[in-house]
Automatic annotation (TrEMBL):
Protein name per Swiss-Prot or TrEMBL: tRNA threonylcarbamoyladenosine biosynthesis protein TsaE
Localisation per UniProt entry: Cytoplasm
Family named by the database record: Belongs to the TsaE family.
Coiled-coil regions, chain positions: none
A GO molecular-function annotation: metal ion binding
GO cellular component, one term: cytoplasm
Species: freshwater metagenome
Key word Cytoplasm present: yes
Origin organism lineage: unclassified sequences, metagenomes, ecological metagenomes
Gene3D superfamilies for the chain: P-loop containing nucleotide triphosphate hydrolases (3.40.50.300)
One annotated GO biological process: tRNA threonylcarbamoyladenosine modification
Length: 166
């Protein structure tokens, strides 16, 4: 079951991501899906901070994959361009995913067909104002479906009733 939350600042999106990071386990994969500037990197920054990453987390667009050290190791990938998908597959995506780290992949919808069937989809859509975002979590596979109750509770404070209709 998808769960939808709303944030009204980058700080809130980082906070939501941090709350989810408390549930992270070795081998987890999160696909970040959303247009340019939606907040995929902002999400990753909050997630990483909660894992204890102290290094500055930047967009991996030109580096493809970055590895950060925290409570868990965090891989941060960006597959915006299709050539990057090929490179990521060449890099040994599977080895990255098979390890004990947590992997967040921006533009993950491109890569989804190449992945095993267990991941959490994070869809970030623009809202009514510049700083509003709708963030929908879609568990794919049993690994995340089994945690639906836990991640729904974790982001509860951002799931209040929508204000202002539609
Ligand atoms: N509610 C919000 N959540 C996330 N970011 C927000 C929000 N409101 C405003 N912003 C701003 O939107 C921008 C999001 O940028 P970010 O780099 O995280 O996007 P992205 O999805 O990673 O983009 P790209 O596709 O270029 O990698 C930042 O400038 C951030 O401050
Ligand atoms: Mg980004």
């Amino acid at each position: 079951m998808p769960v939808t939350a709303s944030t009204s600042s980058a700080a809130q999106t980082r906070g939501l991501a941090a709350a989810l990071a408390e549930l992270a386990r070795p081998g987890d994969v999160l696909l970040l899906i959303g247009d340019l500037g939606a907040g995929k990197t902002a999400f990753t920054q909050g997630f990483g901070a909660a894992l204890g990453v102290t290094e500055l987390i930047t967009s991996p667009t030109f580096t493809l994959a970055r590895v950060y050290q925290g409570r868990l190791e965090m891989n941060h990938l960006d597959v915006y361009r299709l050539e990057q998908l090929d490179e990521v597959l060449d890099l040994g995506l599977q080895e990255l995913l098979d390890g004990d780290s947590v992997t967040l992949i921006e533009w993950g919808d491109i890569i989804a067909p190449a992945l095993a069937s267990d991941y959490l989809e994070i869809r970030i859509a623009f809202g009514a104002t510049d700083d509003e975002r709708e963030i929908t979590l879609v568990p794919v596979g049993n690994r995340w479906s089994a945690r639906t109750r836990a991640f729904t509770a974790a982001i509860d404070q951002w799931c209040g009733p929508r204000q202002g209709g539609n």
